[in-house]
Design goal:
29% helix, alpha+beta
Length: 76
Amino acid sequence: MNLPGVFIAKKKDGAIYYRASMTCQGKHISLGSFSCETDAHRAYLEAGLLLKNRALTVDTYKSSPHLLSFEKWVIL
């Protein structure tokens, strides 16, 4: 697969992992590292939803599970 916002990376031992990132207001934002491509893409989609839906705030973070860390919510 080649999902938007997902990039393949390799650890020093050669193991594959997936990085999610996006550009927002001209700035590159790393969304984190994930063991599977699907989770990395879901984190990318979550970040996009955060940027579009102003009802989602740091105060609503605890109301449901997330792939993005609280720190990434604050950044976005």
